[in-house]
Amino acid sequence: MGNVGSGFGNPNVRCGFPDGYFPLHAKLGFPNCANYKGTQAQRIADLKKRGYGTDIIGEWNKYYKENPTNPLKIEYNVIDPSISNSMSKSAALAEKAKLNSFEGWFKNQFRKGGLTWSQRLNMQTAAQSKRVAENIDNRTSNIDSILSNPSNIKRWENEELVLKQANERLLEIKRIEDQRLQDIENQRLQDIENQRLQEIENQEITFNEQQNIGDFNEAPITEINFDNSCSECTGTIKSTDPIEEKQLTENYLKIGGIVAVGVVAYLVFKK
Questions:
Q1: d(CA 140, CA 143)
Q2: d(CA 63, CA 56)
């Protein structure tokens, strides 16, 4: 293929230049090199501009036609539109973590211990193809630029502050609601306790009232009316109030005492 694909398979020797070397006069790279960053049309135009003949141009057109899926010709200068300065900090850090993980894997593909030269070559070639296919170099440069952008850093700080304040408001709302529900429960328990105490107090009042009036469920004291001249008195036994009974007893005792004194006086006088 002559110069077509010069530098393929070895990222450190791309047309004799170190990988990533793109001078000011060749920002897309050199059109006859494998690491050229332009499209097929850009490559062909660049080849013509630099004076390459129809043989080289024809070989590159043939190559694109015969190798439509070869990762080494993917337009890996295309950036995922979601990876931009408008992305969140968490998304940017997630992208950076993916790239760091790839770099760890990529480095491991170049180990030498326990491998034959052929095995190492195959691993390295596959790793280089995967690196190009996943656009690792451009993605790394892009995400590093995004993470270090002062405007992004300030925006992320403001977003974190707003999020923190929102979380604090949610916690305060939850605290107030929890307190409201706790107050309701406390009041319910207090009402139950108040009702229990009121019932005890009512029972004590009832007991004291019964004690004051002598109501201990005893048989009532009865009274016989011997006054037959009373039209309202029938001589029937009637229940009396304990207090009235006590008063009547005292009256009977007084009358009895007077009668006794009279009898004694009569006997003395008679003698």
A1: 5
A2: 10
Please choose, from the candidates 218, 197, 188, 53, the residue with its C-alpha nearest in 3D space to the C-alpha of residue 31.
53
* Cα 89 from Cα 146, distance rounded (Å): 9
Task: Count other C-beta atoms under 10 Å from residue 64's C-beta.
Answer: 16
Asked if 215 contacts 205 with a C-beta cutoff of 8 angstroms, the reply is: no
- Confidence band of 7 (pLDDT split at 50, 70, 90): very low
Residue 230 neighbours by CB distance under 10 Å: 10
What is the rounded CA–CA span in Å between residue 52 and residue 32? 9
Angle at 39 between CA 21 and CA 78, to 5 degrees: 75
Angle between helices 136-148 and 89-108 (to 10 degrees): 140
- Condensed to tens digits (0 to 9), the pLDDT of residues 30-89 reads 788 777 777 888 888 988 988 888 888 888 888 877 776 554 544 444 567 778 888 899
CA angle (63, 67, 73) in 5-degree steps: 80
| Residues ≥6 apart with Cβ < 8 Å to 159 | 88, 89
Tokens of 130: 């995967």
Q: Are 258 and 233 in contact (CB under 8 A)?
A: no
Residue 227 CB partners (closer than 8 Å, separation 6+) = 233
Query: Residue 50: how many CB atoms within 10 A of its CB?
Result: 12
pTM over 0.90: no
Closest by alpha carbon to 4, among 43, 50, 51? 43
One DSSP character per residue, 33-79 reads BTT--S-HHHHHHHHHHTT--HHHHHHHHHHHHH-TT-GGGS-TT--
